[in-house]
Amino acid sequence: MQIAPQPSFIRQPAGARDRPALVLNADYRPLSYMPLSLWPWQEAVKAAFLDRVVVISEYDEVVRSPSMEIRIPSVVVLKDYVRPARHAAFTRFNLFLRDEFACQYCGSRGEMTFDHVLPRARGGRTTWDNVVAACGPCNLHKGSKTLRQAGMRLRKPPQEPSPGELQNIGRKFPPNHLHDSWMDFLYWDAELDA
Ligand SMILES: [Zn+2]
């Protein structure tokens, strides 16, 4: 969501730089888990100023204009519900996310590359069901061979994930920094043992 630029009446207060606001949809769920929907403080303040969000939690820090003083929001809720996308965008990030940042051949994590299951040289296409995350060594070993020729197996058949599936996977990978005021609205791994 883009917020139109507003008059630059707000000065950058010390310490405000690292005060992002968690952005919740009108149903009080995060707009997205991965990456976690966060706005820089300027955007959150603008949105509050324009009455596009309800501020439900704030930081201690304030920003000042000549005429007003606003505490920096730490959690905001959109007033208008944003309908989730029907299809997950086919992006590098989403593909890694679908595969949980793990090599689909050996399961290792770390530096990932993309591998065409049916090599492009053999007509393989760049689609959800033909591209997987692979570590360097596995990718090198497979080369332009088919699975059978390379004697390799996939851990699971690659397919297009739904946006909801991606969100659920994203919940397994919380960002490094989570502000206390966000916790009531986040459910990292919460349902897995239910
Ligand atoms: Zn591997």
TrEMBL record:
UniProt xrefs under SMART domains: HNHc (SM00507)
Gene Ontology molecular functions: endonuclease activity
Record-linked InterPro entries: HNH_5, HNH_nuc, NA-targeting_endonuclease
Stored Pfam families: HNH_5 (PF14279)
Start and end residues of each HNH nuclease domain: 90-140
Highest rank taxon of the organism: Bacteria
UniProt entry tagged with the keyword Nuclease: yes
Keywords noted in UniProt: Endonuclease, Hydrolase, Nuclease
Protein name per Swiss-Prot or TrEMBL: HNH endonuclease
Organism: Halovulum dunhuangense
